[in-house]
Prior knowledge:
10% of the residues lie in helices and 50% in strands. It has helices at residues 2-20, 124-127; strands at residues 24-25, 40-41, 50-53, 59-62, 72-76, 80-82, 85-87, 97-107, 110-121, 129-130, 132-135, 149-152, 158-165, 169-177, 180-192, 195-208, 214-223, 229-238.
Amino acid sequence: MKSIKLSIFVLLLGSVAFSSCKKKGCMDPDAVNFNDAAKKEDGSCNYKPVITIVGANPATVNVGAEYTDAGATAFVKNSGTVEVTSDLSQVNTTQTGSFNVIYTASNSHGSSTATRVVNVVLGQSTYLGNYTTTDNCDDLGFPHVTNPQVVAGANSNQVKIDNAFTAIGGTIIMNISGANVTVPATSLPITVAGINIGTLDFSGTGTMNATGTQMTVSYDWNRTGQLPAQGVCTVTYAK
């Protein structure tokens, strides 16, 4: 009986000794001082900030528009929030491109960074405004005005020029997709003193430059009725 009691005592003593020999340390892999050899958590874990970007990423802004950043937040586990600084110096809204906003947050255990991509694109607001034009068009067959105003069209993918032609008025519709411009086939009646003397039929394609300051459109036109004529010409619109 004494032998049995002694054996149990030895087993218990060995178990306590084994338990006390377990290596203690930080067992959280998200911590900066994570110890993969630790077998027992000792509450020593330290953390650097984790940054969360607020709003869309990537973000989109039109050429010529002002970019307003939505910011970011940073949180330290078991500690709370810390300040986030942002660097917007790379963002350039004067031309198309992709730019980065860099966020940084720090504490005594390290620094973290995060990046938002800002895509600067050509949108409807970029196209709007007053232009002057140069062209190689027939002044009688395709009498495009020299100082047109581009205004918003029926939707966000469309702009238009009202009173687009001298003497006969009319509207040019432009469907836009980024830098690409498409003028759908249009038939414009030509009237003199209320009498229809023919039509001006036209369509076109073109592009806007990367800074949103110059648009070039090639028109294919055909004038019917009195003084018939047809041709292809290019109009360059500059802000």
